[in-house]
């Protein structure tokens, strides 16, 4: 039943006139609040709060009825967009009748959850979309830093080039329950089923959006999409035409230089080429122990060709090369009395990829796409032995079509081949065999059933895969979306997801640093041993959530989850062996990997966005995460409470001011205290083409620790330091 | 464990998980239930309130683009133009935020080889010779009807955005449906004015009157 949306002029005027609650704060009593809150908010409001006083509440607070604010010039609806509309009017009038004329907010596009375009408001999953504008205004200079703004994403920096990132817990350097993709290319490594964050980078300006899905996305994306999916999507080449150059100089971000050129090959083919180079300073560690400086250069291209109305062929590639430093403590069972040595060295990292994708639109609600990519990564310790080279070839196909009146059916299949070559770092890190190739076959089906038109939609689907570690796996999901009105949606989901074993869990032998184990002659070296025949970790996830666009200015969403894990990875102590000359060491204690652990996590995530005036945008998130894994130390490696607030204020037509506050709870099992920090950004548009900005990050303390010592690799952590940088951006 | 025993273990999942969930401490379960109930209630209570807000600037940009495409896809009788140099006139009666797009159209586009002239009128009596006359919804219904009456015999494409506009004798009327701007065409009124409308537009429109 179509709804006629014809607000009279009076109604829209009433909506535009807003009532703002102003509270005067006694500076003597609440000086702290005064400094933090009033400095930003009341200054922002004072310019607007000149309206007529409507109602006094008390001496200190009153309501002000404001005149209708004049709408700022929205670049999307004027200027460029007018030309687009006129182009439609000339060439394709049909499209004109599909142009949405309502305000966006819940209308951000998401493709990750079901692999088809949908809007956040109509997605039956916990989705958070980081837009290009949010990235620009955050002042973040790397992908991990950008991810901090998404709710319930745990981001902890270990040193200047290493991060522990996870969603809904199980965080660690080798967090392995997350799928991360850049333009459809999976970037987690089958080595340990996690992500080497030091080599994941793009030109942040070219990111269209980052979709962060909390909870399983396994039904369409497959293994590893257990706790969440992060999908980084860059703009089409046609949207990055012209020149872009950025120079950053600062205390920690020593130098970041980016240049991009976009142009046209023919009327319907566009390209862009970019280059980026950065150098980042070491973190803080006492006694000059930090050796984690980091420099990488990268370049790449993207070509988008639309040979006809309904075809899009994308060809893109990247190449990078650089060094990421670190200090490690490596166990050395044959050299008393310390039995370990300090290794200050760099990882030499290099890699490249090429990707080809063909999307063909068959009709309005039917399309297919085929994608193939080749990816190579190289990682070698300079001055040490360890080296890992990996080649991956991936092919993926999907097809969407309507089935009967109310079914939207999507299916697909994929094949991935990965081959690695490892040079062992004896005696600390040994892989047997040193060469391995793996095949992964997968296919999925999903049906989106409209039960009641514009009210109730059910999604049923499953992914099936066959891998070389555990054989056949199935990952079904059932989701329900109820949209009582255009501005509300309520959803629930039950899904099963598996995390298939990684190369390391099958083949590794890690000798940890010496410790004292009661009952064994010191020193004891624990040895983590991979186990052939280890099975997948299994998650059954129960989720529900609600999204509300309460008013034009205020929206919020809430997701609750209960995750039930079985067959979690665990270690079982074996029979100690060792000392050649008892009672003195060294003794070795084998710890075999198995699936003996189980547990549950639950909590909720709350996000809200509020625009009190047209020039002030505030959004914030809070997440609560409770992990119950029967006392395992993993429980205490993810913060229980996290909060994020960002206020973006357009001070004038040329000036922007942004303030970010962040709270991260303590990590009890790592002995890391909680921290609160603040970032600030002040930007000034010198000319319409030139943006100058000063950004301060981690302003509240000179340095703080975000994660504990990594026992697997012996990497020495450094603390995150206060950073100030200046940036110049030129666009043309 | 060999491959045979690593079989698909789906069946062990849900019952155990469900058992554990329902053994969950009573307090927490109640809290979770309460939260769910409150959320459902919020959703239900909110249902029916909050008319969806249309962004006027977007709405009128689309309507402006339509005016331009109507000019392109409709044909006026030769008598509607005095000479070859005469402009194509788009008239606007009443106030509507059409200025940005109409300005762009008049400066950069042509309709049927003619330059485009935009004129705005405040009253029905003011409206002069034009090829398209857009009547804004801010105009009172009686004034709208007077304007339609005034141009009943002439080749003017009368376009409105008020329910009932085509019943009064207007040719095209905009309405909003599914967050987009749609339109209805009174075929009889168009034929009376000797304006023929391309099938491309007719296919998109909701039609009234005799074929």
What does this structure look like?
The complex is a heterodimer of chains A (732) and B (211). Chain A is mostly beta strands and 732 residues long. Chain A has a 22-stranded antiparallel barrel. In chain A, strand 4 and strand 5 form a beta hairpin. The longest helix of chain A has 16 residues, at 31-46. In chain B, strand 7 (172-177) and strand 8 (180-186) form a beta hairpin. In chain B, the strands form two sheets. An eight-stranded mixed β-sheet of chain B has the order 3-4-2-5-6-7-8-10, with helices on both faces. In chain B, strands 1-9 form a two-stranded antiparallel ribbon. Chain B starts with 12 loop residues before the first helix and ends with a strand. In chain B, 38% of the residues lie in helices and 21% in strands. Chain B has seven helices and ten strands. Chain B is α/β, with parallel strands linked by helices. Chain B has helices spanning 13-22, 26-46, 56-73, 99-108, 141-150, 187-192, 199-204, and strands at residues 74-75, 88-93, 110-111, 114-121, 132-135, 157-160, 172-177, 180-186, 196-197, 206-208. The model of chain B is unreliable at 1-14 and 47-52 (pLDDT under 50). At the A-B interface, helix 1, helix 3, helix 4, strand 25 and strand 26 of A face helix 1, helix 2, helix 3, helix 4 and strand 7 of B.
Write out the strand line-up for the largest beta sheet of chain B, numbering strands in chain order: 3-4-2-5-6-7-8-10
Compute the number of strand runs of chain B.
10
Rg of chain B, Cα atoms, Å: 28 Å
Q: Tally the helices of chain A: what do you get? A: 8
Any idea what the shape of chain B is?
Answer: elongated
Largest sheet of chain B: 8 strands, mixed
- Termini separation of chain B (Å)? 77 Å
Query: How many individual helices of chain B?
Result: 7
Spatial extent as radius of gyration of chain A: 27 Å
Largest interface: A-B, 66 and 66 residues
Distance between the first and last residues' Cα of chain A = 47 Å
Strand fraction of chain A equals over 45%
């Amino acid at each position: 039943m179509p709804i006629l949306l014809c607000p009279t002029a009076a109604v829209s005027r009433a909506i535009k006139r807003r009532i703002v609650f102003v509270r005067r704060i006694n500076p003597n009593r609440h000086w702290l609040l005064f400094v933090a809150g009033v400095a930003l908010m009341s200054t922002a409001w004072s310019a607007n709060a000149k309206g007529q006083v409507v109602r006094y509440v008390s001496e200190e607070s009153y309501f002000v009825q404001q005149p209708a604010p004049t709408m700022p010039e929205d670049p999307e609806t004027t200027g460029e967009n007018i030309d687009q509309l006129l182009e439609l009017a000339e060439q394709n009038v049909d499209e004109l009748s599909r142009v949405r004329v309502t305000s966006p907010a819940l209308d951000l596009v998401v493709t990750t959850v079901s692999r088809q375009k949908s809007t956040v408001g109509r997605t039956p999953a916990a989705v958070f979309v980081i837009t290009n504008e949010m990235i620009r205004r955050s002042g973040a200079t790397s992908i991990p830093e950008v991810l901090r703004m998404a709710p319930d994403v745990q981001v902890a920096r270990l040193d200047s080039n290493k991060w522990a990132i996870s969603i809904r817990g199980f965080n660690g350097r080798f967090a392995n329950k997350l799928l991360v993709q850049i333009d459809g290319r999976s970037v987690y490594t089958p080595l340990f089923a996690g992500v080497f964050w030091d080599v994941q980078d793009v030109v942040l300006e070219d990111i269209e959006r980052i979709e962060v899905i909390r909870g399983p996305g396994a039904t369409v994306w497959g293994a590893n999409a257990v706790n969440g999916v992060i999908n980084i999507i860059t703009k089409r080449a046609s949207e990055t035409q012209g020149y872009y150059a950025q120079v950053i100089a600062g205390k920690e971000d020593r130098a970041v230089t980016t240049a991009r050129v976009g142009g046209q090959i023919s009327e319907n083919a566009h390209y862009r080429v970019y280059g980026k180079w950065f150098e980042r300073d070491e973190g803080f560690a006492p006694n000059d122990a930090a050796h984690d400086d980091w420099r990488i250069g990268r370049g790449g291209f993207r070509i988008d060709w639309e040979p006809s109305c309904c075809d899009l062929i994308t060809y893109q590639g990247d190449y990078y090369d650089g060094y990421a430093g670190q200090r490690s403590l490596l166990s050395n069972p044959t050299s008393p009395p310390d039995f370990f040595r300090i290794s200050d060295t760099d990882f030499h990292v290099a890699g490249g990829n090429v990707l080809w994708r063909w999307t063909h639109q068959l009709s309005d609600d039917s399309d297919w796409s085929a994608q193939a990519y080749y990816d190579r990564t190289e990682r070698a310790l300079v001055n040490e032995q360890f080296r890992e080279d990996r080649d991956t070839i991936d092919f993926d196909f999907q097809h969407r079509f309507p089935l009967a009146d109310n079914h939207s059916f999507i299916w697909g299949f994929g094949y991935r081949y990965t081959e690695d070559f490892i040079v062992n770092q004896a005696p600390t890190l040994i892989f047997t065999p040193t060469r391995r190739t793996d095949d992964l076959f997968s296919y999925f089906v999903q049906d989106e059933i409209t039960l009641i038109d514009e009210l109730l939609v059910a999604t049923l689907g499953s992914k099936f895969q066959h891998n070389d570690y555990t054989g056949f796996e199935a990952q079904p999901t059932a989701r329900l979306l109820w949209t009582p009105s255009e501005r509300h949606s309520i959803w629930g989901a039950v899904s099963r997801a598996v995390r298939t074993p990684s190369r390391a869990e099958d083949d590794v032998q890690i000798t940890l640093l010496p410790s004292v184990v009661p009952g064994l002659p010191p020193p004891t070296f624990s040895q983590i041993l991979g186990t052939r025949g280890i099975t997948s970790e299994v998650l059954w996830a129960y989720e529900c959530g609600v999204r509300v666009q309460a008013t034009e200015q205020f929206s919020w969403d809430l997701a609750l989850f209960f995750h039930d894990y079985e067959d979690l990875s665990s270690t079982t102590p074996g029979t100690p062996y060792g000392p050649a000359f008892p009672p003195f060491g060294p003794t070795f204690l084998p710890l075999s990997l198995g699936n003996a652990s189980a547990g549950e996590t639950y909590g909720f995530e709350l996000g809200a966005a509020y625009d009190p005036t047209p020039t002030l945008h505030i959004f914030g998130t809070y997440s609560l995460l409770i992990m119950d894994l029967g006392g395992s130390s993993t429980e205490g490696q993810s913060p229980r409470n996290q909060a994020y607030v960002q206020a973006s204020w357009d001070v004038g037509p040329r000036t922007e001011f942004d303030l970010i506050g962040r709270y991260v709870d303590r990590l009890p099992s790592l002995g890391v205290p909680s921290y609160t920090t603040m970032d600030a950004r002040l930007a000034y548009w010198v000319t319409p083409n030139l943006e100058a900005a000063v950004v301060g990050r981690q302003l509240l303390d000179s340095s703080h620790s975000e994660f504990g010592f990594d026992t697997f690799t012996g990497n020495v952590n450094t603390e995150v330091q206060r950073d100030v940088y200046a940036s110049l951006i030129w666009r043309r | 464990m060999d491959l045979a025993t690593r079989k698909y273990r789906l069946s062990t999942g849900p019952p155990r998980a469900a058992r554990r969930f329902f053994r969950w401490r009573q307090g927490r379960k109640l809290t979770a239930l309460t939260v769910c109930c409150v959320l459902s209630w919020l959703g239900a209570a909110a249902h029916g309130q909050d008319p969806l807000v249309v962004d006027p600037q977007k709405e009128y940009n689309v309507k402006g683009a339509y005016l331009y495409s109507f000019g392109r896809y409709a044909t006026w009788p030769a008598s509607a133009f005095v000479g070859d140099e005469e402009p194509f006139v788009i008239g606007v009666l009443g106030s509507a935020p059409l200025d940005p797009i109409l300005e762009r159209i008049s400066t950069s586009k042509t309709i049927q080889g003619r330059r485009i002239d935009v004129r705005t009128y405040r009253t029905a009596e003011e409206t002069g010779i034009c090829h398209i006359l857009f009547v804004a919804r801010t105009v009172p219904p009686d004034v709208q009807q007077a304007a339609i009456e005034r141009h009943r015999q002439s080749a003017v494409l009368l376009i409105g955005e008020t329910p009932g506009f085509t019943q009064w004798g207007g040719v095209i009327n905009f309405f909003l449906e599914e967050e987009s701007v749609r339109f209805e065409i009174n075929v009889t009124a168009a034929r009376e004015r000797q304006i023929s409308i391309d099938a491309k537009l007719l296919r998109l429109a909701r039609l009234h009157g005799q074929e």
